[in-house]
Amino acid sequence: MLSAMFIAVLSVQAAADEKPPEAPVQPVRLALMHGVPVKWDVEANFKVFLTCLEQASMEKADIFITPECWLDGYAAPDKESTTERLRTVAQDLATSEYLQRVAKEARERSMMICFGFSSIEGGKLFNTAGLWDKEGKLLGVYHKTHLQTHDLQYSFGEGIPVWPSQFGTLGMMICADRRWPETVRTLRLEGARLILNPTYGFHGDLNTAIMRTRSFENQCFIAFTHPEESLVTGPKGQILAQWTGDTPGIQICDIDLAAAKDDNHLRDRRPELYGVISETGSKE
Hints:
The protein is an alpha/beta fold. Helix content is about 25%, strand content about 25%.
C-alpha cells in the first residue's frame, strides 16, 4: 500500500503535469536571496537561509527565492564531486528534515518560498527547485532541464510546468535553462506571468541583456537569483531591481503581475512557421 506521504508527492507531480487555469493576478513583493554558500555544508547554508528569510519577513515579502542548489552550495561542479558524494547531500522530498523545515517556515511566515537543492527521487539525482505556498504546502518541484558538462551527475528534468498562485501563474527555471529561449517561451505560453530563476552560473552585462530580452519577447517578469547578483526584469525589458556583491542578504522588489499581458509579441506570433524549432539536430 502506498504511504500518504508518497501519494502526496505523486499528487504534486500530477498537478504539475496539468495546465492550471488562469490564476488571479495581483501585486507581489519579491525577496531575492544573495550570498555565496559553502559547498557540501548543508547545515551552514541552511542557517544563512534562515537569517535571510527573517530579513524578508521584516520586509513583508510575499515570495522568497534562493540561488541554485543553495542547500548543498551547488556542490556538483566541485572537482572532487562524484555521484556517490552528491547523494550524501541530496534531499528526499518525503523525508528531508530541511525541506520539512522550509515548509514550516513558509507556513509560519505566510510566505511562498522557492528553495534550491539537490534531490534524490526514484534513485535519481536532480538539480531541483521546490515551491512552497503560504500554507507550507509543496506546490511542486522543477528539475533543471538543460544540463551541461558540470551537471551531468544529475538526471535531466523532463518537464517545464507552471503553477497557479494567489498572485498569478508562476513558472521556474534553473540557471542554464535561461540560455534557451524556448524555456521561457514555453513557460509563458503555459501562462506564467512571473518566472523564478535560481541560478549559480554566469552573471553580469551579458546575462542582464539576456534576461531583459527574455522578459521583453515574452512580456513577463523574471526574478534572476544568483549568489552574487539579484536581478528582476519586466515585460518591457526594463530592469526593475539589480544588486551585485557577495555578502548574504536580500533584494526586495515590488511588481504587479497584471503588467504581464498576452498582446503584442504573444498575440502576433506565427507558430505555423516555427515547426523546425521542435525538431532535433540542425538544418544544413
